Amino acid sequence: MATAGSRLPDCSPVVAPPVLMLLRAEGLAASALSAVLYAHTGASWWLFAALWLIPDLSMLGYLINPGIGARIYNAIHSYTTPATLALCGLLLQSPILVPIALIWANHIGIDRLLGFGLKYPSGFGFTHLGAPKQRASGAPAAS
Question: What pLDDT score does 11 carry?
Fold first, then answer.
């Protein structure tokens, strides 16, 4: 526990395997639901394929520095942003905003399923889903 004046570490905590499995299952559910909803929009699957990797352009923020890179990446890889876009699309009755939001949510869900989480400023590899070694093996990372 941190005391007054102490600084919390910039690395991710060890995520217990049952919690890690739950977070990955959440990613699977989000990606499956967004794909099913996308199919019901009638939008082109070519559009889906063309836009699916666009959220990863947020990694370019790391060219500035890790802190800014993490903030930009996290803003783009949070479900809040595509949910807001989908809500705007529904309110504006836009035929394109909802499909784009669903593609975006699908990307985030697949990222979570594969173990790519929100980033810490300490480095690209440390996420809310654990350290790189932990995400790969499902076991707690060595200290």
Answer: 53
Residues of the chain with confidence (pLDDT) below 70: 1-14, 123-126, 130-143
Measured distance CA(121)–CA(69) in Å, rounded: 8
- Which residues, 6 or more positions from 100, have their beta carbon under 8 angstroms from its beta carbon? 51, 82, 85, 89
| Residue 82 to residue 77: CA distance in whole angstroms | 9
| Tally of residues, the chain | 143
Determine contact, residues 140/14, Cβ cutoff 8 Å. Answer: yes
Q: Alpha helix (H) ranges present in the chain?
A: 17-41, 45-51, 66-76, 80-92, 97-113, 132-137
One-letter amino acid of 4: A
Q: Quote the CA–CA distance of 80 and 62 in Å, as a whole number.
A: 21
Q: What is the pTM of this model?
A: 0.80
Place of tokens 């504006």: 92
Per the DSSP assignment, residues forming a β-bridge with 123 are 120
Query: Would you call 17 helix, strand, or coil by DSSP?
Result: helix
Phi-psi region of 69 (alpha: psi -120 to 50; beta: other; left: phi over 0): alpha
Q: Which residues contact 28 (CB under 8 A, 6 or more apart)?
A: 109, 113
